[in-house]
Amino acid sequence: xxxxxxxxxxxxxxxxxxxxxxxxxxxxxxxxxxxxxxxxxxxxxxxxxxxxxxxxxxxxxxxxx
Length: 65
Description:
- The chain has three helices and three strands.
- It is of the alpha+beta class and 65 residues long.
- It starts with a strand and ends with a helix.
């Protein structure tokens, strides 16, 4: 997984987005305040969200048994 600063990312954002999508590899972005975030494909993010929602719903159902 690549890591870069927000300054580096902003210099060539289109290429970064294309690389994240083409290689299905998230990139860690960090700023001067040492805050971090991850840039990933929307389809991958949606898949994670769906899985978390499903697990949360399943856990709730199990508690009600």
